[in-house]
What we know:
By secondary structure, the protein is an alpha+beta fold. The protein has helices at 8-18, 21-27, 35-62, 76-87, 106-140, 143-154, 277-313, 337-369, 373-408, 411-414, 420-430, 437-449, 455-468, 477-503, 506-540, 546-563, 566-576; strands spanning 66-68, 71-73, 159-163, 179-182, 188-198, 208-215, 226-232, 234-235, 238-239, 242-247, 258-271. Among the domains are: 8-150, Butyryl-Coa Dehydrogenase, subunit A, domain 1 (Orthogonal Bundle); 160-277, Butyryl-CoA Dehydrogenase, subunit A, domain 2 (Beta Barrel); 450-581. Helix content is 58%, strand content 11%. It has 17 helices and eleven strands. The longest helix has 37 residues, at 277-313. The structure holds flavin-adenine dinucleotide. Flavin-adenine dinucleotide is lined by residues 161-165, 170-171, 196-198, 250, 258, 429, 432-433, 435-436, 438-439, 509.
Amino acid sequence: MYEYRAPRRDFQFVIHEVLEAERVLAGLGRADVNRELIDGILEEAARFTETVTSPLNWQGDWEGPTVADGAVSVPPAFKAAYQQYCRDGWAGMAADTEFGGQGLPALAHIAVGEMLCGSAMAWRMASGLSEGAVLAISRHGSDALKTRYLEKIVTGEWTATMCLTEPQAGTDLGILRTRATPAADGSFAVSGTKIFISWGDHDMVENIVHLVLARLPDAVPGTKGLSLFLVPKRIEGKANGVRCESIEHKMGIHGSPTCVMSFADAKGWIVGSPGGGLACMFTMMNHARLGVGLQGLGLSERALQAGVSYAFERLQGRSARGPVAREKNADPIIVHPDVRRMVLTLKALTEGQRLLAYYTYLLEDTEHFAASQEERDHAKELVALLVPIVKSLLTDTAMETTSLAVQVHGGAGFIRETGAEQFLRDAKISCIYEGTNGIQALDFLGRKVLGNGGASVKLLAAEIAKSLAGDLPEALQPWALAVKAGVEEWAALTRLVGERVQKDPEELGAAAVDYLNFAGYVVVGWCWLRMARVATAALAGGSAEKAFYEGKLAAARLYFERLLPRTQTFAAAVRAGAATLPTLTREHFAA
Ligand SMILES: Cc1cc2nc3c(=O)[nH]c(=O)nc-3n(C[C@H](O)[C@H](O)[C@H](O)COP(=O)(O)OP(=O)(O)OC[C@H]3O[C@@H](n4cnc5c(N)ncnc54)[C@H](O)[C@@H]3O)c2cc1C
């Protein structure tokens, strides 16, 4: 069973050497968050996740929660870890100081989020959902709701959920049926059934605050008729009309109770304006989408660690170039080029995407803290563009990385005790919830790209061009050209799809997933170029960490020569268009 090890050195590399956090944060007026503070947080979080949360991962997978008489119980170790999490102050890192939080910029706590996801994804979901709810309530809630609920959620004393999905309404929220009827005292009576509600009930805390999408009696049909309600499990200690009917038996994240929740005239209060529910929920969902991207990244990191460990330990066969471990009866499997292909692919995907995720969070800091409105708007547009890429690319990649980790292990990878197969099972849900990856791609291409005539893509292209300016070492020139060519082809694909969509709206859906993947691979190529530049400079400067930086360059090379070429397949699929996805009847599939 693999325990989690925090990739401390890579956090340092990305946060300090590539993103230059200290300088950037000082420019944003947050000079108080210096390297020493960030490193202190990283070290403490590494210790916490390696020793406290990592064992929860497999414990939750084997034991899981149970439900009896409408109440969910989680393994006792979950509760103890959660109490320590709150006691140690991890819960309120991002939240505003006004509500009991620490108001830290994302660059100071993003790696903590990754460590929590990587060490115990299912357990982490409880606190991750609360963070999103804090954002939604603090931006859209009334002063009374903020006073009554925020501090309790910020400190972790209570947790929160998001209740959207119903049996007949998943992606299509416009057909939600849950109702909210106004009461004389200004509250609402909420009734309906929500399914698949993560951490909908549990015994780690005494109260749970549900954010529920529902319809007022006079609501218009569709999503414009949805309003958001805050519905607590308990009000002043007394049970409200909220009950967990059952929990799901699932493929993965066994440690997270996925609940069917019934609301029977449950007392709640509106958050935001009538009919504005979806917009309020989007505050929570955008946070959650980046958070789900971090889940993908955390699992890829686990896959990388497991793959590397096994590749250096397992003895099978001999190197094609002659025995390496002569004293043993076989060489470690890392001698085989195909195993190196797998572990280097793990490294190139995981570490490249880490920079993409952290860069996106740095842009969120800029959106939040920059002095000028212009800078804030610029960052906001880039964040909006990158959120669906981070959510979708990092989670689809987690399916590849976790599968590779199993493959490196051979038969042992398929056996539960080894622990690698859990990562693969856990990864799949990240491609589904918070809007499936297909829906992310539609959002990306439809709203974020074509919705503003490709302006956001041009903004990102300008950022990329800016960072490529100046002297680049000779050895990196071909990679810079590859990124430049990718950006140009991205623009050409945008024009092509834009024109086609004018004639046939189905061209959008036909292109979206491949278009997003194309863009994602190009942006990660840019990330690798940035990292290669730093590594090259460190080596030229005679760094004592030669192997670390050489490892970076090896992964960069693999990315550019073996993974970036995948863009050609994505581009071909985009160009193939809707004509290759004809409308067929069931009979066409007869076999
Ligand atoms: C473990 C787990 C935890 C969850 N946690 C929560 C939670 O905490 N709160 C909550 O509210 N929900 C939660 N969900 C629900 C989750 O968000 C939904 O399952 C998800 O949004 C997809 O909805 P669906 O399952 O109804 O699939 P459907 O909407 O039926 O989609 C089926 C397929 O059709 C595709 N599709 C659907 N509509 C379109 C379209 N317009 N264009 C293109 N393709 C389309 C989808 O991409 C998908 O591939 C959870 C689900 C699971 C399994």
